[in-house]
Every structure is written in C-alpha cells, then in structure tokens.
Design goal:
Length: 118
C-alpha cells in the first residue's frame, strides 16, 4: 500500500505482516478488532510518532454480538509519519477470548512494517 502526502492510511488485522509505504505528513491509524490487544507502538518514533495513547472502545452491551469476556470492541492508535526511514508498529495479546489463551503467533502478535518516504 502506498499513500500520498497528507493521506490517511488505515491498517487492521488484514495488514498483519505487510509493508506500508507512506510519505512525510501522512497519518497511519491502526484499528484491531479485539479489546485484548495491547499496542506496543512504533519501533522508531523519529520516523513514525504516536499521536497520543491507544484507545479502547468496547462494544455496547446492547449490541448482543459478543459473550461477556470475549473482548468485543476495538483498540485504535494513530501515528504521524514525521521523517524518512523505517519503523514497525506492533501489538500483542495473550488472551483470545474468555479464559482462552492465543495458540498461534498469528493470533497473539500483529506487526506492520512502515517505510516513510520524503
């Protein structure tokens, strides 16, 4: 995925393991669809800087789409592409549902590689 200057780029579970090309001035917003994710942030804040902490939004009880303890909701964090270079954005979790440990690396670790161009 390649963005243009000032673009807003989104990433979610579907981009796990992929490489995104951004330009200085672009914004990357990561949204993972389970509240058990913990955002680790950017590996290089000089290239890709977090714009505030990650926020967690649970599904409202009225949605009835999730059993209690299922982690229904999202974890979101935005990053600004501030200079050229590379950085990884990572997130991790150990729980994949109520009292269910994640059993594969794909379930427990999320990463996107970001290359920022001028």
């Amino acid at each position: 995925v390649t963005a243009g200057s000032g673009a807003r780029v989104t990433a979610s579970e579907a981009q796990n393991g992929s490489t995104l090309s951004l330009h200085r001035g672009d914004t990357l917003t990561v949204t993972l669809h389970n509240t058990y994710w913990t955002m680790d942030g950017s590996s290089n804040a000089g290239v890709l800087r977090a714009q505030g902490p990650a926020t967690t939004q649970g599904d409202p009880p009225s949605s009835r789409n999730c059993v209690p303890g299922g982690g229904c909701g999202t974890v979101t964090q935005s990053f600004a592409a501030v200079s050229t270079g590379g950085a990884d954005v990572t997130a991790n979790r150990t729980t994949c549902g109520e009292a269910l440990r994640c059993t594969t690396p794909e379930q427990s670790h999320w990463v996107v590689h970001v290359v920022v161009r001028g």
